[in-house]
Amino acid sequence: MDASAIKQLQESQSIENANKEIPGDLNHQLIALPEDFKLHNLEGYHAVRFRFRGAFSTTSIDAFAGYAREVITQQSPCFIDAKAMNAKLIFNFTDKGHCDNTGFVALEKTAAYVALLKIAGARSTQKEIAEFIEDWRNCLVARSEPTAENPAGEIIPIVRVIGAIRKISIEAIAKSESEVRNFGATQASMESIDVKSADMPPAFLSFTCEPYSGLPIRTFDLRLSVITDRAPALILRIVREEQVSEEMAKEFKAIIETKVSDITPEINTFIGKFSA
User: Fold this and answer.
1) Order of strands, edge to edge, in the sheet holding 76-81?
2) What angle do CA 225, 231, 235 make, to 5 degrees?
3) For residues 78-88, b (16+ Cβ closer than 10 Å) or e, as one string?
4) Is residue 205 a contact partner of residue 141, using CB atoms and an 8 Å limit?
5) Which of 113-122, 160-169, 184-193, 205-214 is the least confident region?
6) Would the pTM count as exceeding 0.85?
7) Could you say which DSSP state residue 253 is in?
8) Phi, psi torsion values for 148, nearest 5 degrees
9) Where are the beta strands (DSSP E) in 139-276?
10) Spatial separation of the C-alpha atoms in residues 13 and 2, rounded to whole Å
């Protein structure tokens, strides 16, 4: 008998001894095996699966709810991640299920909203802002600074807005003053910088679009700022962006809850993420 056979006999005896030491209430949950053992799943060789499982994924809330109606057989939880605009429904959650039969919906940003997010907050050239307004002019309304007589501001035609942005120039005026006395001297210099254009650019823009497929149309208020540098730079900023994001998240949660509210067995909704 060679050394390899002796080693295997010793391992077999050690495994047998270890299994005898496992308490009786755990002898169906724990077992001692050699480290180099591999598990093989034989499910693929049977006519049917041992149990049903699957992962359905969609970008449509209606498809998500429709699939839930077809598949659900027991009360199931739905976990809503409102910030990421997605929801996960687990069909085999109860009765100590494996939690691997799921439905998942993640809303897609629309092309208009993607374009808005790309330009918003970025330092842009006159050309980039003008082209953005030209491309999405059907979504935009421009307004001047509000006044006491017109608190909403005057609506400015988009053609004038594009022309005003393209013609922006920066004018710098330097001024120097000096004073000489018997026992001292004073010197001061100042520079004033002004934005010049044939038509002044609008103070505000309103961008109306469907942000995500399945969410209501919404209007985003944008403030236009001009950076007075050697070459003009412009920034479009979404007003109260964090609050707007919170409002859209609440809309998404409400829509999901409405779509699954009449499904039987009942679907309970939770805000948050879950991983088995």
Assistant:
1) 54-58, 101-106, 86-90, 76-81, 267-271
2) 20
3) bbbbbeebbbb
4) yes
5) 184-193
6) no
7) H
8) -65, -35
9) 140-143, 155-156, 169-181, 184-196, 204-209, 218-227, 233-238, 267-271
10) 17
